Amino acid sequence: MSKPNFAPLKLFITGPTYIRDDVKEAALLPEFGHRDAENDLRLVPIRENLRKLAGAGDMYEPVLFLGSGSSAMEASIRSLVADGETLLNVSVGAFGDHYYNIAVANGKKAENLKFDYGQPIDMDVLEKKLAELKPEVVSFTHNETSTGVMNDMKAVCALIRKYDAMPLVDGVSIFGGADIDLANSGAAMYVTATQKSLALSAGFGIAFVSKEAEEKAATVTNKGHACDINRQLEKARKNQTLTTPNGTLINQMWYQLDRIVNEEGIENRFARHTDMRGMVEAWVEGLDGFDMFAAEGYRSPTLSTVVCPQGVTVAQLKQQVKENLRAKGYLMDPGYGKLNAALEAEGRRVIIRIGHMGDITPDMLSDYLAALELELKKL
Known about the structure:
Elements: E1 10-11, H1 21-25, H2 37-54, E2 60-66, H3 69-80, E3 86-91, H4 94-105, E4 109-114, H5 123-133, E5 137-141, E6 143-144, E7 149-150, H6 153-162, E8 166-170, E9 189-193, E10 204-210, H7 211-217, H8 229-236, H9 247-264, H10 266-285, E11 291-292, E12 303-307, H11 314-327, E13 330-331, H12 337-345, E14 351-355, H13 362-376
Parallel strand pairs: 1-13, 3-4, 3-5, 5-8, 8-9
Antiparallel strand pairs: 2-10, 6-7, 9-10, 11-12, 12-14
């Protein structure tokens, strides 16, 4: 078999993300039986380190779902929105819409409250909708990957609780990159995944399930098999997955979580992400015609979205900037496709995204920003 001509690129997209060589090498750890005692050697520390990263304490049970963050999101819908109940989804971008679309695809009665591109949840507007609709369940995105907006999760959950609804939170692109203080968040179920700020390959959705969610799920029918969080919890408490997992990824996850918690340190990891957000902000400040897309105070620590000058086109970003950077060994993100298409159609300035999540370092980011700046100045 001939050797493939795969380019070794440094990923500055918003997921999947850069994976360290030592994490890749952990894939060579021995295979194991997922119902054997060897499984415990991996899953017990994995679940304990997930609790630590989340600040979950004993209030939430970590569960690994085979698949992706969408798998865990679908389980939250199937298990926690009963027949006859109304789900209000609150969206600040494409991935907020994704949560709504999952609900509709599962036949749930759902309404989507949308906010403009780049804007966080407007609490006054949300409160009016909660009072009017009286939903039993509310889903929303903590960190919107398409726009770089980070919502105030605790404040949103508190408002939802004020109207006696259950909050479901999508934290796919922020978990592992910021302190979410889950134990004090008010979320009934918080979902994330492996391939973004945990700097692992895709393969698992991760859910943190509260006792409240577990008790409600026990009363809901037609949950399916893999989407039934009660079935999942039964195995999770045995430090297992419901069905046969990707053992290679579990080996890597065991290694990576141990490295994050016991080598880099959780607080150091979070601080590094905050520092990199500041680096991008300072870089944008020094560029004529460029601006941050998300409002100050609502900017993600794991990815930044930057508004280009008027006249820059999506075609230029894809065909010139992205390909020129590919030749230099970088994979650049020319903006979320559907968002940029909408912005361009409306005559608005288009955006680029800069992923600085997971194991990207400030030195790596500094080199990338210098290379990116050279290409952007050619436009």
